[in-house]
Amino acid sequence: MLAAIGVALVTPTFVPAQDVTEPAVKATALYKFAIFTEWPADVLSPGAPFTICAVGDNAVADALTREVTGRTVGAHPVSVSRNSSPAGASRGCNVLYVGGGTAANALHSISSLATTPVLTMSDVEGFAGGGGIAQLYFEHGKLRFTINMAALKRSRLQMSAKLLQLAKRI
Q1: What topology does CATH give the domain 2-169?
Q2: Which one of 46, 48, 89, 159 is least enclosed by Cβ atoms within 10 Å?
Q3: Count of CB atoms within 10 A of residue 144's CB?
């Protein structure tokens, strides 16, 4: 079962072979993380959209739009919001992905979210160590991730134990 979750997490659900790019793999991971994470009951009202925001990485935002069109997280239809700058990008986000740039910029963009139920993710080195919840990285051609357990706890999000077993935890 654990291996199946790992494969499901890093394998695009419906992306033609020629389109399996790094942004597509990251986009699939963002969606899969959302599926394997629970938000507090007071965060999402019934039927409300589930919003995944992408900041600073148009390629991931484009791939994410292709990945989630017509999909749901629980009973919530998924929408994608994109921003080129982090200023105000976190409003209304359930998942916030900050791509590219420096760790300082990525961490600045999530600084106001430390105790809010927003799943903060990035591919920027040092993101999880600096206070972000999940950091994506490639190792030997495979997508891996680090989870900051203290940041996860502060956010009041509950991540699947099976997903956590696949993570490097700090």
Answers
A1: Rossmann fold (3.40.50)
A2: 46
A3: 16
